[in-house]
Amino acid sequence: GETGVRKDSGEIFAQAIRLAKCHADECVFIDNNESNLIIPKKLGWKTIFHDDKKNDIESLITTLKDLGVVMN
User: How large a percentage of the chain has pLDDT more than 70?
Assistant: First the structure.
């Protein structure tokens, strides 16, 4: 909300990369709306759909680990 840019615009993801000083292939975007995953995936981000109704945290953690995300 602070950026004034919506998730259906690539600009929000470009801003995130600039702020984080990283590359798209180093980023993971998690959302509960599959349509919000389209743009970041096209931009090279790893994307994960998380079903809020199921809220399967163990599955989410496994998926993140499979993507190489280091969690402390």
Answer: 96
